[in-house]
Amino acid sequence: MKILPLFQILVAAAIAAPVPITAPPASPAPPARAKLSVVATTPDLASLAREIGGDAVDVKALAKPTEDPHFVDAKPSHIVTLNRADVLIDGGAELELGWLPALLESARNDKIAAGSPGRISASAGVQMMEVPSTFDRAKGDVHSLGNPHFLVDPVRVKLVIAQITEHLSLVDPQSAPMFAANRKKFEAALDLKLAEWQKLLAPYKGAKIATYHKDFVYLAERFGLNIVEELEPKPGIAPSPAHLAKVIGTMKSNNVKVILVQPFQNRKTAETVARQTDATVLDMPEQPGATKNTDSYIAMMDNLVGTLAKALGGAK
Ligand SMILES: [Zn+2]
Predict the structure, then answer these.
(1) Distance from the alpha carbon of residue 234 to the mean position of ligand 1, in angstroms
(2) How far apart are the C-alpha atoms of 99 and 83, rounded to whole Å?
(3) C-alpha of residue 199 to centroid of ligand 1, in Å
(4) Which domains does the chain have, with CATH numbers?
(5) The predicted structure's pLDDT at residue 51
(6) How is the beta sheet containing 208-211 ordered, strand by strand?
(7) How far is the centre of ligand 1, averaged over its atoms, from the C-alpha of 148 (Å)?
(8) What is the pLDDT of residue 2?
(9) pLDDT for 220-244, tens place per residue?
(10) Distance of CA 284 from the midpoint of ligand 1 (Å)
(11) Average pLDDT of span 262-288
């Protein structure tokens, strides 16, 4: 979205607006310490920030759970939110290249500039898959620095929460022991869940699957699934009839029975392919809150693994 000058003036006015004066508290109790304002680009990162930050943080996500993280609809409210943020967590690896840089420029907040303690780029501490040796942006591929959809791998998530803990502790040293304790607790919960998820998917090692976008490669690697085809010819490029014909052929010859889609992808196209291959379209939202009872990272992963295990079990 292009941001108009008038719009920037309105935003500047909103930022400069005085905080309303409220009556002093009646009790002599000391005022509560202000919570850190943590902004995450996507709900999955926001959920991780809540796990680590606990009561010391107030966390907001810019993208809706049902929005494509590559193509988020930039809004005036996002600029205000970023202007007031103490900490920004982004996925990095150009996941948000299409929308975040313009918002940050308008928000003018040094606390969350790249390289500041208040800026966490999740990809910085993560081993990336599919890093291209050469890259031609003209072809439209949106995975220019490698595949940025790594949060569906619980092991890589541990590296991300380590970074979140480190940065939050720099910004709010007083709360550092609490952040460290929260990290330990969340890691233990994640380890228990990972064992459970591995057990659930163990019978389907090597199962062949198709996906709409290249957004399940880390999940497939972690749990030993085999992605045979993507409906998109390149990440971010809509499927052409010629490409879909090739996908259908490959799916048939490999007997692929599931197609994984997210809420913002073209389900109709996936259903057309599914009809011709006798496959099932699986709703697999990677963002907490996209469907009922998936408000945390672990609940979201529970939903993904459960949906997959059920479908692959039925397909046997
Ligand atoms: Zn992508």
Answers:
(1) 9
(2) 16
(3) 28
(4) 6-12+33-124+136-193 (3.40.50.1980), 196-315 (3.40.50.1980)
(5) 98
(6) 226-230, 208-211, 258-261, 280-283
(7) 6
(8) 47
(9) 999 999 999 999 999 999 999 999 9
(10) 14
(11) 98
